[in-house]
TrEMBL record, chains A, B:
Annotated ranges, domain WHEP-TRS: 3-59
Species this protein is from: Mastacembelus armatus
GO biological process: histidyl-tRNA aminoacylation; mitochondrial translation
Family: Belongs to the class-II aminoacyl-tRNA synthetase family.
Start and end residues of each Aminoacyl-transfer RNA synthetases class-II family profile domain: 118-371
Protein name per UniProt: histidine--tRNA ligase
Entry GO MF terms: ATP binding; histidine-tRNA ligase activity; identical protein binding; RNA binding
InterPro entries: aa-tRNA-synth_II (IPR006195), aa-tRNA-synth_II/BPL/LPL (IPR045864), Anticodon-bd (IPR004154), Anticodon-bd_dom_sf (IPR036621), HisRS-like_core (IPR041715), HisRS/HisZ (IPR004516), HisRS_anticodon (IPR033656), uS15_NS1_RNA-bd_sf (IPR009068)
Catalytic activity: tRNA(His) + L-histidine + ATP = L-histidyl-tRNA(His) + AMP + diphosphate + H(+)
UniProt superkingdom: Eukaryota
Catalytic activity, EC: 6.1.1.21
């Protein structure tokens, strides 16, 4: 018997200890240990203390993911990681406590001059979360990069092929991959008469073209950024151009833009890139678009961005701007983006040795949101486990037999479950299968045990067949590999 | 042409901007954006600025994981997650900004009364890391729990089966799983004459028995904790007992310990538990050990801990105490631990509704360290990619043909690579295969193209065979599924 007053006193003291440790920012283990003691004291009171100090919500800007959301995430991860692996990528992990260029730092620090790697990790933002806009404090980033001195445009083309594979496999709806080149943009600005020191600001105005009509963009250039009407008009002509290899070839002959050496280098590379994209069979979705101007300054060559073009997606993805990528100016519908950055690694190297890089960020949080929306509007149920078979019985006192059989199945690598009850009702066992989408039930009864068989029931059709115990594992494998 | 002095001035100004934002703790995106601008300015200087402000090391208490380490981690994750899935577990994710009882909070908050789930996540410690002891600021936790009102000991037995499966599959060497029950410990202390208010402190002394000889433990009990010599002696007798079902049966007849109702309840459950463990075929590794006393106060019933018993492991795992589990007192060699905690969820529920739980934490960081050590001392190379075939050529001007073939392979889901060079040397292509363990090379030459075949070379044996192009995918699948 315990004295309640004594425990209540102890809770008070222990509460003080916890508060003190927290105010002193003591180490987490110590606080947790003391909190555990506090919880245990409260447990002894049996909930009689009347009030609960532990608020039932997650911290600001954070949320839980339930099994259904996690199952969707896992499917997305698997599709993406399988694609990276199909292309021979390794993976590395760098600490979360770091600026956004850990890959460049990693290469320079380890003197790595070539690698093809992906990195998928949860990252954190410190600023105010905006959950209504889907900006959470915790979110995933997913990057793929190829570093190394190689022949032009081959790794760049593979990055685009990877984006194409991932978006096709995830079946998110139709998409386009816009391609441009930093050098083409810069060259175009130069020949249109944009002063050097206005390249960046004009570039960021051009970048608004996917959200604003040309007239507004032009107004911003002229009225706010002080560009001449004429220069703006010329830019307007170029940034309305979209095409493929032929457009690149045409522009190489353009009397104006061909005056820029930079632009010509970019255009030649775009031309070469498209010849590789043809061999990779992905030109159906890739478009050379002179209005594409990604925000990050470290890009030195090809840049690209993938957008979902399906109706309805814009709405979903606006709500889902959960810091989708490490890029700043991800536009509505954007699900991937990247480009070539040949200068970044050299900045970290003490001797300035350059390691050319090209990479892509997949907007994985946005993809999660779209997949969740799709799952919700679909009639198909999302399974949260992969159980192939439930070991059940219709009669009493067969727990031991059920445990024996489920052990045989586990030993064979079959995903199997048994209810944690001595004498569960057959109906409740079958209901559990229907609810969690388990396709098969292995039913044991005294007759089956006597005959050395198991009754295998297909949940969807309610068909049943007696299977010799020796053949059960093979039969389960056969039936579940078909699905 | 750019004016270097002008850029250097701009770098200075931009550096000030970054420093100011950092000192104001501005939001991360903003800082990152300004840092990117700074980096770009430096890039324009072409490394001429002479000094590099970016220090090439990771933050204190953190480290990178290279592809080899990540490959080992992935193998461990896969083994563990496959086991959890084989047992029908779902997965959830809870925010990292939370005390160590997120699962209890999650259940109470969502009014979930039964679930079988795992959760693998990176967590962070705020206190001073001790990297020499393997205590890093970032580390993984891996938990599996079964929540719900079920018949006694069935889920508990499954947790032990899961630990047995994981440790067997990971092939870490021989292991033991010690089992005890909180109620047996408490009952034993009571019948030995330990005062109520000394249960916890005596319990933590008992817990040191795996690191200290009995004589020292006894001394601590008597001299430091003020226990009577007689009580200590009686405890000493009990805690030296190890066995299985028979020991539980014998103690149920023990004139002393059977006086405690609590102890009897615990002993009956241990007896029942062992009968299920027999059906699960895992009694070879499980031992009922009255000296096992896990530190956390929230345990209410069965407790257990898995230890590696192999020589040499102790040394490895001492170095590898990277905050391995959420448990405090993980002893040397311990790789998993857990128990039943029936009171915790109720503390979070406004109405105090209880949800019985039993769970296990896998010491995944420790397992990583052991696997890394094993890999280092083994002659076998750890592959960091899964590439099945390299598409190569011996002659010049076949880049297009290589890209066409690799596209065919990717379309068929084959993991394939091609070198990013127009005219790579055959030797360097073969060397790359040897270095990264790629088992097959598909070699294209003009003769092969003419004949409609591909020369398939086995890297290990150097055997070569001409395969009709139509049969290539099937042949690659056949050869790599054998491996």
């Amino acid at each position: 018997m315990e004295d309640k007053a004594k425990i209540q006193e102890a809770i008070k003291v222990q509460g003080e200890v916890v508060r003190k440790l927290k105010s002193e920012k003591a180490n987490k283990e110590q606080i947790d240990e003391e909190v555990a003691k506090l919880l245990e004291l409260k447990a002894r009171l049996g909930g009689d203390d009347g009030k609960h100090q532990f608020v039932l919500k997650t911290a600001k800007g954070t949320r839980d993911y339930n099994p259904k959301q996690m199952a969707i995430r896992e499917k997305v991860f698997n599709t993406i990681i399988n694609c990276f692996k199909r292309h021979g990528a390794e993976t590395i992990d760098t600490p979360v406590f770091e600026l956004k260029v850990p890959f460049a730092r990693y290469l320079a620090m380890n003197k790595i001059t070539n690698i093809k790697r992906y990195h998928i990790a949860k990252v954190y933002r410190r600023d105010n979360p905006a959950m209504t806009r889907g900006r959470y404090r915790e979110f995933y980033q997913c990057d793929f990069d190829i570093a190394g001195q190689y022949d032009a445009m081959i790794p760049d083309a593979e990055c685009l092929r990877i984006v194409h594979e991932i978006l096709s496999e995830l079946d998110l709806g139709d998409f386009r991959i816009k391609v441009n080149d930093r050098r083409i943009l810069d060259g175009m600005f130069a020949v249109c008469g944009v002063p050097d020191d206005k390249f960046r600001t004009i570039c960021s105005t051009v970048d608004k073209l996917d959200k604003m009509p040309w007239e507004d963009v032009k107004k911003e250039m002229v009225n706010e950024k002080g560009l001449s009407e004429e220069a703006a008009e010329q830019i307007g002509e170029y940034v309305s151009m979209q095409g493929g290899k032929t457009l690149a070839e045409r522009l190489l002959q353009d009397h104006k833009i061909s005056q820029s050496k930079q632009a010509c280098a970019g255009l030649s590379d775009i031309k070469l890139l498209f010849s590789y994209l043809e061999l990779f069979h992905i030109t159906d979705k890739v478009v050379f678009d002179l209005s594409l101007a990604r925000g990050l300054d470290y890009y030195t060559g090809v840049i690209y961005e993938a957008l979902l073009t399906q109706a309805g997606v814009a709405q979903i993805s606006t709500e889902a701007q959960n810091g989708a990528t490490s890029e700043e100016n991800v536009s509505v519908g954007s699900v991937a983006g990247g480009g070539r950055y040949d200068g970044l690694v050299g900045m970290f190297d003490p001797k300035g040795r350059k390691v050319p890089c090209v990479g892509v960020s997949i907007g994985i949080e946005r993809i999660f949101s779209i997949m969740e929306q799709k799952a919700e509007s679909s009639a198909e149920k999302v399974r949260t486990t992969e159980v192939q078979v439930m070991v059940a019985s219709a009669q009493k006192n067969l727990l031991e037999e059920r445990l024996k059989l489920v052990t045989e199945l586990w030993n064979a690598g079959i995903k199997a479950e048994v209810m944690y009850k001595k004498n569960p009702k057959l109906l409740s066992q079958l209901q559990h299968c229907e609810e969690s989408g388990i396709p098969l039930v292995a039913i044991l009864g005294e007759q089956e045990l006597k005959d050395g068989v198991v009754k295998l029931r297909v949940v969807a059709t309610r068909e049943e067949a007696d299977i010799a115990r020796d053949h059960l594992i093979g039969e389960i494998r056969r039936r579940t590999s078909e699905a």
